[in-house]
Amino acid sequence: AKQEGRNQYRLYTPKMNDKALQRLTMENELRKALEREEFLVYYQPKLDLCSGKVIGAEALVRWQHPRLGFLSPSEFIPLAEETGLIKPIGDFVLWAACKQNKDWQDKGLKGICISVNLSAVQFQQKNLLQKVTHCLTEVGLNPAYLELEITESSAIQNPQMTIKTLKEFKKLGIQLSIDDFGTGYSSLGLLNQLPLDTLKIDKSFIRDITSDKDSQAIVSAIIAMSHNLGIKLVAEGVETKDQMFYLKEHHCDQIQGYLISPPIAAEQFEKFLQPDYHI
Ligand code: C2E
Ligand code: CA
Ligand code: CA
Ligand code: CA
Fold this sequence. Notes:
Layout: H1 2-35, E1 39-48, E2 53-65, E3 69-71, H2 77-83, H3 86-106, E4 113-118, H4 120-123, H5 128-139, E5 146-151, H6 152-155, H7 159-172, E6 175-181, H8 188-193, E7 198-201, H9 203-206, H10 213-228, E8 232-236, H11 241-249, E9 254-256, H12 266-269
Parallel strand pairs: 2-4, 4-5, 5-6, 6-7, 7-8, 8-9
Antiparallel strand pairs: 1-2, 1-9, 2-3
Helix pairs in contact: 3-5
Bound molecules: ligand C2E and calcium ion (3 copies).
C-alpha cells in the first residue's frame, strides 16, 4: 500500500504542486510588484474618422517582470481579479493615466481624453466614486479628459447599481464608455437608462467586417441604435485600411487598432499629439 501511495504521489501530486506553487509565487510577486513599481501604463491612440486626428487614447497596463520580462494583461489580470489585487493595480493605472494627461496639457499639447478600464471587481468597490474624485482633484485634471470603460458583461451584473453609479460619475463630468459591446447581451432598455458617451464595438465583429454579412449586419445595427440614443461609436481591433474605409463609410465615429498603432509608451504616444499629425 505504501508503494502504491508513493506511485500515486509521483503520478499526480508533483504536477498539482507545481501549478499551485506557480500560482502562489505569482500572487506574491504581484503583491510585491506594486511596491517595486514594476507596472507601467501604455497608451493606444483613438482616431476620429471625420478629422483623421487622434482625439484620445486607452490606458493599458503592462508588467515588467524581473524574471519573466514584459507581461501582457492576459497573463496577470485574471489572477489579479481573483485575489482582489486588481484594486490597487487599478488605482495605480488611474493615477498614472491622469498624471500623464495633466503633463501633456501642461506641456501645451492638445487636450485629449484618456480611457481607463475598470473590471467588475473594481466597479463594485463602495468607495470608487470617492477614489476617482480624489484622484482628479489631487492631479488637477479636468474630468472631461477622463473616460471610464466598463465591459458590457460587468454592466449587466447588477443593472440598478450600474445605472446609479454611472449617473454619479456623469455628474462629475467624466466620460463613460461600454467596452466589448455586442458580447454581453445587454438590453436596449438598460442602454437607454445609462448616461453613456461611447460604445466600443468588440473586435470580434470588426475582424471580418469587409466580407462577412453577419458582422456587417450586427455592426450596422449597433451604429444605428447608438446614434439614435446619442452615443458615439468606437470600433476596436481595426487592423486594415479596408476595415477603416468600411467603418468610415458606415458612419462609425472613431477607430482604435494596430492600423493606427499598438499600445505604446507615453513618450512615443506624444508624436500623435503634434499639430501636424494626420492619418
Ligand atoms: P480591452 O479593454 O478590450 O483592450 C483592448 C485590447 O486589444 C488590448 O489588449 C489591445 O492591445 C488589443 N488590441 C488593440 N488593437 C488591436 C488590434 O488591432 N488587433 C487585435 N487583435 N488586438 C488589438 P491588452 O493590452 O493585452 O489588454 C487586454 C485586456 O486586459 C483589455 O482588453 C482589458 O480587458 C484588460 N486590461 C488592460 N489594462 C487594464 C487595466 O489597466 N485595468 C483593467 N481592469 N483591465 C485592463
Ligand atoms: Ca477597454
Ligand atoms: Ca475592448
Ligand atoms: Ca476585449
